[in-house]
Design a protein that fits this description.
single chain, 141 residues, mainly alpha, Rossmann fold, 2 domains, two-stranded parallel sheet, 6 helices, 45% helix
Length: 141
């Protein structure tokens, strides 16, 4: 079983699974490539505004986001961003639209594909609900 909480945990899981399925060399090569990409993101970021944050919508109904123990939160931090839910306990907490709005994110990151839906995320009920709010419109200006 694997339950990574940060990018290093993801890398370790890939290598462990590679060993289990007799593909250790390929797993190590993949991890090297992923590390290089992560380093490129970290060194390539141009600015960081610690006062701004993002909200990640992983699943719409019910709304799930990335909390303190999620590797996704670590990815955002490594890319120079802040998640407004970085201090929320757990990895994948259930969240309300009201809490998402109250966190005043500068951006909402929408996961698409798989269990979280397809690329038609603009039709997502939570995005529609938040984007209609006066408070959200004021954040965009």
């Amino acid at each position: 079983m694997t339950d990574p909480h940060n990018l290093e945990g993801v890398f370790s899981s890939i290598e462990r699974i590679g060993e289990i399925v007799n593909r250790g060399n390929q797993a190590k090569q993949l991890v090297e490539q992923l590390r290089a990409r992560a380093d490129a993101v970290r060194t390539g970021r141009k600015f960081h505004d610690p006062g701004s944050g993002s909200f990640i919508k992983l699943y719409a109904e019910p709304l799930y986001t990335a909390g303190r123990d999620a590797f996704v939160t670590d990815l955002i931090r490594r890319a120079g961003g802040d998640s407004v839910t970085a201090n929320v306990p757990g990895a994948w907490p259930n969240y309300s639209a009201e809490s998402a709005l109250a966190s005043r994110p500068e951006a909402i990151i929408l996961a698409t594909g798989g269990a979280s839906g397809d690329a038609k995320f603009l039709g997502c009920p939570i995005v529609a609900k938040i984007s209609r709010r006066t408070e959200w419109k004021s954040l965009q200006n």
